[in-house]
Amino acid sequence: MYVFMVSPEVSIEREYANLLTNKRGSIMCEGVLAQYLNSVKEIIDEYGKDFRSIYQIETTNKAQHDVSYEVTSKTLQLLKNMLIEKVGYVDREILSLQDGFNDINTLLPALNRYAFDSRDIVERNLDAIQPIPIAVFLTPNEDKILCLKKTKSSTSAASPERGRLLFYAGGHTRIEDEFSVAKCDFIKTAKNTLEREMFEELGISISLEDEDAPFCLYTPHYSEKSKQHLAVGWIIHLTPETKLNLDSYELVQKKGTSKSGSFLTFSEVEKAFFENKNIYLESWSKEILVKYFRNRFSDHFIDSIEQETDYHQCSMFDNE
Question: Residue 90: in which H helix or E strand, if any?
Answer without folding.
Answer: strand 86-91
